[in-house]
Amino acid sequence: MTANTKLDPKVPSGPLADRWTRHKFELKLVNPANRRKFHVLVVGSGLAGASAAASLSEMGYRVTCLCIQDSPRRAHSIAAQGGINAAKNYPNDGDSVFRLFYDTIKGGDFRARESNVHRLAEISTAIIDQCVAQGVPFAREYGGLLANRSFGGAQVSRTFYARGQTGQQLLLGAYSALMRQVGLKKLTMLPRREMLEVVLVDGVARGVIARNLVTGEYERHAADAVLLCTGGYGNVFYLSTNAKACNVTATWRAHRRGAYFANPCFTQIHPTCIPVSGSHQSKLTLMSESLRNDGRVWVPKQTGDARAPGSIPEDERDYYLERKYPSFGNLVPRDVASRSAKEQCDQGRGVGPSKMAVYLDFRDAITRDGEDVIRAKYGNLFQMYERITGENPYQVPMRMYPAVHYTMGGLWVDYNLESTIPGLFVLGEANFSDHGANRLGASALMQGLADGYFVIPATIASHIAGRKLAPIKSDHPAFAEAENDARSRIQRILGMKGTRSADSIHRELGLTMWNQCGMARNAAGLKSALQTIRNLRSEFWENLRVPGEPNELNPTLEHAGRVADFLEFAELLATDALTREESCGGHFREEHQTPDGEAQRDDANYCHASAWEYQGEGRPAVLHKEPLAFEVVKPSTRSYK
Amino acid sequence: MSTSPTTGRMHVTLEIWRQKSASEPGRFVPYELDDVSPDMSFLEMLDVLNERLVAKGEEPIAFDHDCREGICGSCSLVIDGSPHGPERETTTCQLHMRRYRDGARITIEPFRARAFPVVKDLVVDRGAFDRVIAAGGFVSVNTGSAPAANAVLVPKDAADRAMDAAACIGCGACVAACPNGAAMLFVSAKVSHLALLPQGGPERDRRVLSMVETMDAEGFGHCTNHFECGAACPKGISVENIARLNREFLRAALKTPVVSRSSGSDD
């Protein structure tokens, strides 16, 4: 079902490069002395959440931050390896704000909002300044200046990095800013809390219901604004590079209360992950895209070639990325690299025990630069690879296969990062805003920090100063009602006493999503996935078994609640994929490809963001379309040849 | 590594610490587990055990974990007496069963330290680390007030050594390994990271004084130079940082009169 309600993205008009500056001027301000009267609730403590919570607290707002981990320092942003983009143009290789904007719009396959992306590129440089001032130990040249490296989808070096632990160092920077505010007693940090419901009063977000994961108690948190910074939904595929606790619960619960969910079918499959080794596999481990700066991707030319890689002579190897895409070579964007790897394996040229892998070979780089140089650049990644696989990548090529990594879709937000629920803002991976149908490497860290450090501190005033907010207390009936919903759901989960574990159902869901809704999708497969998802949901609600009590630490119960939400969300993802009758970025519909197998967009019919409105359990969601206007970059066929 | 010659699968006997809550006594419970693949990670082996417990209607074993790639610092576990188990510079989540023989007997306990109370089974509360960071493990720079990134030069060597120290994942293995339950390696890693960079300079003295004061108040023990911490650290953080912490502390303490040392300083 499609509705014609107009979504208002609140994008400023005028020249693209002036929009953010003018918008900031036109936004209302909250007087510094008045800010302490407003309570902002931040859910999640990753790059977006920690940077937002710290910045808003510094400005004088009263801030409470919740996270599901035992410490805010453990949010999954910490696992990002490669780097963060910024248009500093330090290497003097022709970079600019406009080029970063252009690369991101093109990399996203023309499915992102120009205004948002330009703002992101503009802010990128201030992020680096901020992080350096916090003491983030970025890589440096001998002269003491910051070093850069290249990433996929760009022909300039604009990626700042801290060895292979850039996410960790940026998160620890944001975490230190957050903890500074905690030490100053200006911010309340509540770890081991899971948000279960958003509370609406007169249609406006006025707080959340959270569960204390240690005691099982339900908590009512009233606020003047709620920020969801709860990451992506990659774990709907069960196996992904996401941490085990990553989930869709916060955004899905908000969706059920009225926040539109946009482009859920835009999922990113990362090309270089360590292949699955068996049915016990609990997660997949990514190997940074930066490895493709020096590693060469290849498969044997002959199908079913079982020789050891070292015994395959040069002329019997197919360096297929270099062959197909000579100008970008091994550094094509992620969606292109992933699909090419799948294609090679599907044609029978896959390597390793499962035959579902391609080689990433450092032999030539080691010969050229020496082992020490390669070790200095990627030592920790090589070590991680060896631990997991038992193979030494200095001697034999790495085996790689794509895996679910990032989700471009998320809650729909306007230019102020506000969802369709007034007062509910969504930041970082949890929103849909900046990456279109495919995210470029080293841009997730940039977006999370842009949203938290620089966008929300300005745009939150649109709500706080722009609307009359009556004082709110957690004894309002809306809190009692939402708490009841959360409670009865958990009681229902514990009450079934069936035979299936939540994990086994989650695995089954993941396999269906990966096979029918992963790197390549088609209508028949998606329709069968929809049926499987519905069956699994019935199975879950009839035959689940969760041991333990509700009033204590119960990780199995937490997981079951998240699986319940994935089982609802998966249906929306598959529906969105079925509805989008084109291929773009990470969404590849087999029915829509060029003769040489590249994605074929349909700009006449699908140049829009699909924002879905919840209609109740078992009722099809309603589709709202936000048309995307390209005023500056003319959509073209993305070519990396 | 040796595995069952016929199947390549292993059988292990686990002795696992079970404790309902902080206020109840715990005990070791034996579990037999067969059909373990050498390619499983240690935590995947525990997942398999937990799935079997759920199938029997028993309560699964609670343990902290998240990223499962050795960076978030959630996973803990003392395995056969060593925090994070037998492999050098390897977190529990990155330990794989190919490290063990078929028929192995493995003891699994929580991290034990006065400052890390047990929450349940193998889960402990490491909130004390956050409070130590809140006391001074930061540079006081509000968002928006930073100078241009390349305005301050940082010698590559200093940046590299700062990064070595900043690689700490805050897991707490150093505390669990220390006979005194000291947090010196953790605290020294953060003090070193920021003392080595010009950005950390202005707050160098008050940072170290405040962090050490909070470390003591949280119930961490004193350092008596056993250096078990360095051996247990999954990220290879060097105990040289402890020497630097001691120097930094002495330097700051001699310069700063006791009366003006306020931990609750304003920005």
Could you explain the architecture of this structure?
Chain A is α+β, with helices and mostly antiparallel strands. Chain A folds into three domains: 308 residues, 3-Layer(bba) Sandwich (FAD/NAD(P)-binding domain); 135 residues, Flavocytochrome C3, Chain A, domain 1 (Alpha-Beta Complex); 127 residues, Fumarate reductase/succinate dehydrogenase flavoprotein-like, C-terminal domain (Methane Monooxygenase Hydroxylase, Chain G, domain 1). In chain A, 36% of the residues lie in helices and 14% in strands. Chain A has 17 helices and 19 strands. In chain A, the strands form five sheets. A five-stranded parallel sheet of chain A has the order 5-2-1-9-17. A five-stranded antiparallel sheet of chain A has the order 11-15-14-12-13. A four-stranded antiparallel sheet of chain A has the order 16-10-18-19. In chain A, α14 runs parallel beside α16 and α15 packs antiparallel against α16. The longest helix of chain A is centred in the last third of the chain and has 25 residues. The model of chain A has no long low-confidence stretch (mean pLDDT 96). Chain B has 267 residues and is α+β, with helices and mostly antiparallel strands. Chain B folds into two domains: 111 residues, Roll (Ubiquitin-like (UB roll)), CATH 3.10.20; 134 residues, Alpha-helical ferredoxin (Fumarate Reductase Iron-sulfur Protein, Chain B, domain 2). In chain B, 32% of the residues lie in helices and 12% in strands. Chain B has eight helices and seven strands. In chain B, the strands form two sheets. Chain B has a five-stranded mixed sheet with strand order 2-1-5-3-4. In chain B, strands 6-7 form a two-stranded antiparallel sheet. In chain B, a hairpin with an 8-residue loop joins β1 and β2. In chain B, α2 runs antiparallel to α6 and α3 packs antiparallel against α5. Chain B is elongated. The chains are: A alpha+beta (641), B alpha+beta (267). Chains A and B meet through α3, α5, α6, α11 and α12 of A and α1, α2 and α3 of B.
